[in-house]
Amino acid sequence: MKPTVGVIGCGAVGQAVGAALVVLGFCDRLLLVSRSAEQAAALRDDLDDMRVAYGSPVRPYAAEIDELRDCTTVVVAVRAQFTNSHSTDVRMGGAEANSVVISALAARLRGYTGTVLMVTNPVDLMTRLFADVSGCPRVFGVGSALDTARYRLTVARLLSVPVDAVHGHVIGEHGDAAVICASSTTVNGMPVPVPLQQVHDELTRRPGRISAGISRTRYGPAGAVVSSLRLLLGLEGGRTSP
């Protein structure tokens, strides 16, 4: 029997995650939770159309928070309503507003025994906050997974090599404080000189460029969620970091 996955937040990232899960068929049931019952129902209907058109076995449902306790994994992609005035380290702009929402969700899910995957920014702080308030034993953030994907892609383009040939990592806090592991980066298993300034500039500018063009990053974070779910659900060998 396949797992049940819950998604809290039916905005840009939640929609992208839902669509990816319907196509990939990781789960039997997909429970969608939103502050707006109408939004959750609308996304359910849209994904139901997608399910039938594509031939997916995944059944989407509009749900309430308390129904998520039976989920194998819960993805948290909710965002508070606020205006972000930060021009640098923009992810921190939502810390105060999002912490209120995350604390309330964590309190509702106190005692949940499954796995929680945090997407809400600032993701590292929200991951820790959710873990502390909820007491859930397995709470992960997707920040370093997304930063690492962007890093590998940038290095591949700058060095004109396939992205699959690049092995490297970005660690630490998601955002401006992230640390590029240049000394351990390899191409086809061989160490390479990483053009750090060019890489740093691209990693700094890329999220803003995406947001300026399509209002919000969504598919990159969704890809990081899907990649993490493969590991957390035991569908693929490997490790992810809490």
Automatic annotation (TrEMBL):
Keywords: Membrane, NAD, Oxidoreductase, Transmembrane, Transmembrane helix. The chain crosses the membrane at residues 6-27. GO terms for molecular function: L-lactate dehydrogenase (NAD+) activity. InterPro entries: L-lactate/malate_DH (IPR001557), Lactate/malate_DH_C (IPR022383), Lactate/malate_DH_N (IPR001236), Lactate_DH/Glyco_Ohase_4_C (IPR015955), NAD(P)-bd_dom_sf (IPR036291). SUPFAM superfamilies: LDH C-terminal domain-like, NAD(P)-binding Rossmann-fold domains. PANTHER family: L-2-HYDROXYCARBOXYLATE DEHYDROGENASE (NAD(P)(+)), L-LACTATE DEHYDROGENASE. Residues 5-137 form the Lactate/malate dehydrogenase N-terminal domain. The keyword NAD applies. The lineage of its organism: Bacteria, Bacillati, Actinomycetota, Actinomycetes, Kitasatosporales. It holds the Pfam family Ldh_1_C. Belongs to the LDH/MDH superfamily. LDH family. GO terms for biological process: lactate metabolic process. This is NAD(P)-binding domain-containing protein. Residues 145-197 form the Lactate/malate dehydrogenase C-terminal domain.
